[in-house]
Amino acid sequence: MVHVRLNKQIVGIPLAAVILLAGWFLPPVEGLAHEGVVGLAILFAAVALWICETLPMGVTGLLALVAAPLLGVADINTVFSGFGTTTVIFAIAVFSLTAIVMKSDLAIRLTGFLVRLAGADSRRLVLAFMAAGAVLSAVMNDSATLVLFLGFADTIIANAGHEKGKSNLAKCLYLGSAFAIFMGGMATPAGASINVLALGLVEQATGLTIPFLSWVLAVAPVAVLMVPVIWFVLTRIFKPEPIAEESLRALTGRAAALGKLSKEEKKTLFFLIGIPVLWIAGSWIPALNVTTVSVIGLALMCAPGMRLLTFDEFQREVPWTIVIMIGAVISIGGVVGSTGGVAFLANAFLGSGVMGLGMFLTFWLITAAVYFTHSFVPVGPAFATILIPPLMAYCISAGYSPAIPAVLLAAILSGNLLLPINPGLALSYRDNVYTFADSFKAGIVPVFVLVTLLAAWVPFMVGVLGVPC
């Protein structure tokens, strides 16, 4: 097994080299200059290294960024600009929530409740975790929700005596939490930042707004159906080990012995409830964006009189490899976008003739193509900005609501079930719990179900609701 893994890692080196050489020597193509071809080659070379797990994820991302100025695609002073975005700062600050929860006994209380609910049935425990994560992520940032639930999962795994990297229960809890949270995130406009971007694009193009409830009716039913679908597939592929009775008694007993909430736990609950409320309010109050709220929340947690957290406790909870990975992915996306790669891919698809098919097939193919492209080119906002306007124009000319492509693309770009190079899923890719192949195997069937449900339900419901037209 080690020999096979080593061979796979070594294969990534010549594969990435071939991709880079091909990109360098290929002539410019219509609609894409030489720099754009090389930019795409750098991206796909990085994807090859990620899939083969040749280097740590963050190191591969940094290496790809260094390759851009070396090959004349970008300037060294701007290529790392992704690390200065609010997304990276948010990715750091949001782990303050994990730190205060893991420092308190709230994780024991919640996991004790879920364990009591599920009993000795580990499959039912996975479903309970997924359902709770989906509900919370509908009104809370997906990344923050995932970070919290990974902490809860760690508590269960540790108390059950399972070893990460060898436990199917750990795989189910990590992947199940991530997948379900992405479903919850697409269910409401407040669930993901790209949903807000889609709302803005519709308003800019039509002058109309998609009401909150209309969005929920158009997407939430699909999200609700997807949670049991994902759970069924996941627990069939990775059959979770049962939890021993003594471990169950230990978890529930520890929760019962805690008694009433302590003063520190009440403070922790204040932040756990207050920060998401401000995030939701940020959908209408621009000053309350998730990054600003998260940084201020971190400062208050460390402030005199509150003292929920020290900086040492905070920085120990931040997975810096993932932070580097997120910054690198954003930066690579910027390089590909600035050299015309994203626009080239979008225009190639829109010019393929797919727009002349029937409504369901058209939207199914669009949704599927964007989903799989986004799996390897994880620049959701760029795809949304480039694809949604022309698709809305097509819908208006064809007599469909322009809200359809906006809602569809926001739903599929808010998360990814296939590869953990997407910044959201990357948060769960740690401690060797699962591999790239594991996430792909678990996600491929649910992806086709998701695409089919969205392509059938969203156009139908948007048409029934009649907004906006």
Automatic annotation (TrEMBL):
GO BP, one annotated term: carboxylic acid transmembrane transport
Pfam family, one: Na_sulph_symp
Stretches that traverse the bilayer: 9-26, 82-102, 173-192, 212-234, 269-300, 320-346, 353-372, 378-396, 403-422, 442-467
Range of residues in the leader sequence: none
Topology versus the membrane: Multi-pass membrane protein
Molecular-function GO terms, alphabetical: organic anion transmembrane transporter activity
Keywords of this entry: Membrane, Transmembrane, Transmembrane helix
One GO CC annotation: plasma membrane
Name of the molecule in the record: Sodium-dependent dicarboxylate transporter SdcS
